[in-house]
Design goal:
Its EC number is 2.7.4.25. The chain is of the alpha/beta class. The protein contains nine helices and eight strands.
Length: about 230
């Protein structure tokens, strides 16, 4: 493929963006870029330094000392490195989510990571998912998808996932956390979550994984002319 194709997938927390984007990228032989993992790495660094994530000045002051790396292992999966250390597993800890949600709202943090994301899209055909990919990071992407599902269905899926991991949480707590995250993501000052005007809406509330993946692949192939 001579021309790089950029696929931007945005949507609320728990909509299945990462799982679907990763699988679709493998099917299309594209590079998958999980931008949420990049912000989680910043959140991980803030937590390790005992910085209050709500202290914007302290978070911004810590950025120059951070070396954020993104590599792809033999397993084909994206690995995140923090100052040379693989933190791929650590950034998935539940407590990191709160840190990532807070620090990702700061314009300085988003600006710090913007070029890294755009460089990957210049060098590879990518499927990149996040909250502002189609609106801010890759506004000229050939394909834009807004992937969503009802808060109740996202909470149900999350509950099942946690049960399978052996770390169950009450449905009501999960739903409350998702609703809070939705409000924060859509009301933050820097790059709030919203559907780009030229994005295709894909609601997976009534779809299983296979149906969702096929719907996503169909949109990508039609929009990119594959």
């Amino acid at each position: 493929m001579t021309k790089t194709i950029r696929v931007a997938i945005d949507g609320p927390s728990g909509a299945g963006k990462s799982t679907l984007a990763r699988s679709a990228a493998a099917r299309l032989n594209f590079l998958y870029v999980d931008t949420g993992a990049i912000y989680r790495t910043i959140g991980c660094a803030v937590r390790r330094r005992d910085i209050d994530p709500g202290d914007r000045a302290a978070v911004v002051a810590a950025l120059p000392a951070l070396d954020i790396g993104l590599t792809y292992g033999a397993d084909g999966l994206q690995h995140m490195e923090l100052n040379g250390e693989d933190v791929t597993a650590e950034i998935r800890l539940p407590e990191i989510s709160r840190y990532a949600s807070v620090v990702s709202a700061y314009p300085e943090v988003r600006a710090y990571l913007l070029e890294m994301q755009r460089r990957l899209a210049r060098e590879h055909s990518v499927i990149m998912d996040g909250r502002d990919i189609g609106t801010v990071v890759l506004p000229d992407a050939e394909v834009k998808v807004f992937l969503t599902a009802s808060a109740e269905e996202r909470a149900r899926r999350r509950m099942l996932e946690l049960q399978q991991r052996g770390t169950p949480e009450p449905y009501e707590d999960i739903l409350r956390a998702i609703q809070e995250r939705d409000w924060n993501d859509t009301h933050r000052a820097a790059a709030p979550l919203r559907q780009a005007e030229d994005a295709v809406l894909l609601d997976t509330t009534e779809l299983d994984f296979t149906q969702s993946e096929e719907a996503l692949l169909r949109i990508i192939r039609e929009r990119a002319g594959l």
